[in-house]
């Protein structure tokens, strides 16, 4: 599945919700879509799913414009927290309705997961709790095996154990059947081991994009004497600093081609995606990172 967004602009009620948003995806993977509330994540993903038109730019999914394009819609599954079906339908009815839509639908897996998440087929949607509805939606997204599957904060209401379990199922299924999965979340700490790449939006613009493996190589938390830390961090972007007595800790983003070797008298630690996201977007608020 190849996705191309080139300078995509979306205007709603006179306001630009997406501003010249560009993003290219050419390899399977689970892509994190991060950004503060109102950044434009849902809008961007609705555009890719063919649910929303654009006002300027180019968007292509496997070479075709996705908007109301029946030919490619069966390759796309968009899962979000919303009531997509009549509340009087049963779980079994919903599965029957969605199944023929996706050519690679995996019925055995769907059945197994309905059992694991205690979703009886005879239960009506109106009788499901919020977490159970979310679990059903996520099961549909996983079992669809759609070449482009989009999860827009899909776990609302699911308890911590259920979330952990469904992430595991998603990851295992992805490993066996790689495809392109976009996953927007504010629960970065608990989802970060799913992701291969990250895209951060802010106020309708893409402000950061990178493979997690290369990000991990160039973002470091460094601790030691203040002067030493500052000297070492010189070639990078200091995203955050804290001082505790004589110890300075800095989170530094180095250019990918210039991560200096760590001197023996400094300690380094890996920075989690959540910490990177928080420090990076905080710095942006201060207008210091471009
Ligand atoms: N129908 C609409 N009319 C006008 N503005 C809208 C409409 N839908 C969304 N917006 C605005 O577009 C912006 C982006 O919304 P969007 O839902 O894409 O953000 P998001 O990044 O998904 O946010 P969240 O993390 O809160 O879900 C917001 O400022 C929102 O108020």
From TrEMBL:
Every ABC transporter domain range: 3-228
UniProt-listed PANTHER family: ABC TRANSPORTER ATP-BINDING PROTEIN ALBC-RELATED
InterPro entries found in the cross-reference section: AAA+_ATPase, ABC_transporter-like_ATP-bd, ABC_transporter-like_CS, ABC_Transporter_VariousFunc, P-loop_NTPase
Keyword Ubl conjugation recorded: no
Molecular function GO terms recorded: ATP binding; ATP hydrolysis activity
Gene source species: Alkalicoccus daliensis
Source domain of life: Bacteria
Keywords: ATP-binding, Nucleotide-binding, Transport
Protein name, UniProt field: ABC-2 type transport system ATP-binding protein
SUPFAM superfamilies for the chain: P-loop containing nucleoside triphosphate hydrolases
Pfam families documented for this protein: ABC_tran
Keyword match Transport: yes
């Amino acid at each position: 599945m190849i996705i191309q967004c080139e300078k995509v602009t979306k205007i709603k009620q006179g306001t630009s919700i997406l501003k010249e948003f560009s993003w290219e995806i050419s390899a399977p993977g689970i892509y994190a879509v991060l950004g503060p509330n109102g950044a434009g994540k849902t809008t961007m993903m609705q555009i890719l799913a063919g649910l929303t038109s654009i006002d300027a730019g180019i968007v292509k999914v496997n070479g075709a414009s996705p908007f109301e394009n029946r030919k490619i819609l069966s390759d796309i599954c968009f899962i979000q927290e919303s009531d997509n079906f009549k509340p009087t339908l049963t779980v079994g009815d919903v599965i029957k309705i969605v199944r023929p839509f996706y050519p690679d639908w995996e019925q055995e897996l769907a059945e197994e997961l309905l059992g694991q998440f205690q979703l009886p087929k005879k239960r009506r949607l109106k009788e499901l709790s919020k977490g159970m509805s979310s679990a059903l939606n996520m099961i549909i997204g996983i079992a669809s095996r759609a070449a482009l599957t989009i999860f827009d904060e899909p776990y609302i209401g699911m308890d911590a154990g259920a979330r952990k379990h469904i992430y595991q199922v998603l990851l295992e299924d992805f490993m066996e059947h790689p495809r392109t999965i976009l996953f927007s979340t504010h629960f970065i700490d608990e989802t970060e081991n799913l992701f291969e790449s990250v895209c951060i939006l802010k106020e309708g613009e893409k402000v950061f994009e990178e493979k997690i493996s290369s990000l991990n190589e160039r973002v470091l938390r460094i601790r030691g004497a203040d002067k030493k830390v500052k000297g070492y961090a010189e070639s990078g972007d200091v995203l955050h600093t804290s001082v505790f007595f004589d110890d300075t800790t800095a989170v530094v983003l180095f250019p990918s081609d210039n991560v200096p070797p760590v001197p023996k008298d400094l300690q380094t630690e890996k920075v989690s995606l959540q910490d990177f996201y928080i420090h990076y977007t905080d710095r942006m608020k201060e207008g210091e990172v471009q």
